[in-house]
Amino acid sequence: MRHFAIALMLCGILTGMAQTTVRLDLERTVELATDSSLTADRYRSVFHEARYAWLSWMAGRKLQLELSTTPLNFEQLMTQRYVSDTDNDEYRQQKRLLSSASVQAQQVMEPWGGSFYASTGLAYLGNYGDFTQHQFAVTPVRVGYRQELLGYNPYRWNRQTEPMRLTVAQQQMNYSVEQTAAEAVKRFFLLAVTQEQLKMAQEQIQSCDTILAIGNRRFRIASISKAELDILTLQRSLAATTLKSAQLSHQQAVRSLAVWLGMDEQTRLELMIPSVLPSLEVTASDAIAHASRNNPNYLSMQLKELEARRDAEQLKRKKGLNASIDASIGLNQVAERFDHAFRSPLVQNQVMVSLTVPIVDHGKKRNAWLAAQSKAETAAHQREEQRRDTELDVMQTVAEVDQRQSMVADAHRSLQIAEDAYTAMLQRFIRGQANVNDLSLAQQYWQTARVDHVKALQDFWNSYFHLRLLTLYDYLKREPIRH
Fold it and tell me: What is the per-residue DSSP string for 109-141?
């Protein structure tokens, strides 16, 4: 028997070591959700993708240098040659060695929509066999400019869309991570409700045991009837069933919150439910102003409209005559010796103008342009609808937060009244001045008030974090939310 008791003690110790108890308040829960949860990390990875794309675009606006080289290109083949002595074509073996290197530089010109380029290069060509020759080709410098004419400038549009795209990605990350925080708040209070219900169920068992013991003593002295004693016994049985159900719901809520916060499933959570509300003074106009600056829905719809206008402009410019120009000037020379290739370089000029004129396309480009125009108009309407819907949601949420504050105060007063009433009724029952029904009714009111108080807190904090989500603004710290 002694060894069995020691084994039970060791099992209890190991079980306690395996299950870590973590105490959480609402603020710590939000911090864990936004800092270490897998969902928040995923949203940050999406933002980094957009950030690197923006950095790539910024780098593309600067001077680009590129080295192109073919260190070795050797060929051995049979070639057809004309032999004047025999007046016939003959196949002869020929070997060829080619090596080249060049450096190109390019700089886009955003105001005009074209690009300047420059290059320098060196090449060697050697032929071996019946025909032997060595040549060095040098291009000391070559500069040029190329551009599409007649309108469309993609660089000018990119200067508007790319910074906006990065800002949208930043706001969208903040919005998505804040969604994670709002979901954590929901799970926090779902656990808070089950925690309070479990606590009440445990207290109910203890209360039923105490009241049943009092009832048995009063029954023995004929102070209560057998029916009233049976009611107390039934209440004890129902309390045991309620306790088992509360334990199951509590375990599920603990597991849900722990997994969401990135904790082990076996972690035991104990919540510290906020009983005092912060002092909030939020006006609808201020909240709408914060939303217009921080909510990604505003800027993303503006970006969508701008991109639609860009596409319409591009199709408009390209539905008729298209022209481009490429002009360059440089120096080059060829010689059999390397040092001679740099002597008396020749001027190399090139000017190329390209024209494309549609003759018959049966309205293909024009209809594509009209479709793009309609898409731009649709995007403008959608942006206005999104603004209207978001502002309406913000105004309703501000009103809801104000209303929830007063409802929490009412629930707190009701809880105090119900608790005092139950305490007084319990004392009266012990003294024999109240019956079982009166005590059960007072206890029911008290338990209902306790749950209602927690649910009132739940509704307030859910509304508050929904307002934070819509405006991406922390009204307690008085600063925008940045994750």
Answer: ETTTTEEEEEEEEEEEEEEEESS-EEEEEEEEE
